[in-house]
Amino acid sequence: MPRKKSVNHGKIVEAAKKEFERCGFKEASMRNIAAEAGMSASGLYKHFPSKEEMFASLVEPVKAEFEREYRERERREYAELGSGKPEISAEQTGGNRWAMEYIYDHLEEFRLLVIKSGGTMYENYIHDVAKLEETSTLAFISELRKKGEAPIDLPRKEVHLLVTAQVNAVFEAVKHGFSKEEALHYADTLDGFFMPGWLHVMGVPAEVLQADVSA
């Protein structure tokens, strides 16, 4: 990309972030973005054919990376499950701190995804993350059963509600404007709140559960 075009592209991206953050996707104006970037509306469309594509260009890379990191964490959990360890580890049940770290390292993009995406393909983003976590949780429970563990036999609807509650709780930090320090403290609180319940659901013996709670 020629230098001038690259510089203009960077200006557009920054202007778009400001406009979407200020107005949300539905009310954002391509004309306002062009003016903020110091160019004509026609010049703007040479970089982004539509407002939808512009919004996607801001959030999709972070969304995709978050899912890749999630899958890698999931892969490590399965590897640990097959390592012969006698109980489920904290990493396998307490990912709120990890998720919050990632979210707050990319807070601009997650604010757009969680708060400003109405009218886009991302407007149900939290629901989509909950579905991802639900599928992973059910697969993990199934794997435990194959290995002779004894998770509680919860109806899928209950797993769905529990996972949805936890995922929504994480993103409430973004909605309520927590600082990173506040959000990480809150994530530790969430792990302390949800982990004993998940350990119980996964069939962890009471003495192990008690040790994890007191740790």
Radius of gyration: 21 Å
- How widely separated are the two ends? 54 Å
Number of strands: 0
Structural class designation: mainly alpha
Number of helices, counting only DSSP H or I runs of 4 residues or more: 11
Strand content: under 5%
**Shape call:** elongated
SSE topology string: HHHHHHHHHHH
Q: Mean of residue pLDDT? A: 87
Query: Main β-sheet, in a few words?
Result: none
Low-confidence stretches: 208-215
Helix share of residues?
over 70%
In total, the number of domains comes to 2
Walk me through what this model shows.
The chain is mainly α. It folds into 2 domains: about 1-50, Arc Repressor Mutant, subunit A (Orthogonal Bundle), CATH 1.10.10.60; about 60-215. Helices cover about 80% and strands about 0% of the residues. It has helices at about 5-25, 30-35, 40-45, 50-80, 90-95, 95-105, 105-115, 125-145, 155-175, 180-200, 205-215. About 25% of the residues are buried.
At a glance:
The chain is mainly alpha-helical and 215 residues long. 78% of the residues lie in helices and 0% in strands. The protein has two domains: 1-49, Orthogonal Bundle (Arc Repressor Mutant, subunit A); 58-214.
Task: Name its key features.
215 residues; Arc Repressor Mutant, subunit A; disordered C terminus; mainly alpha
Architecture blueprint of SSEs:
Layout lengths: L2 H25 L2 H8 L3 H7 L3 H31 L8 H4 L2 H10 L1 H9 L9 H22 L9 H20 L4 H22 L4 H9 L1
Helix pairs in contact: 1-2, 1-4, 1-7, 4-7, 6-7, 6-10, 8-9, 9-10, 10-11
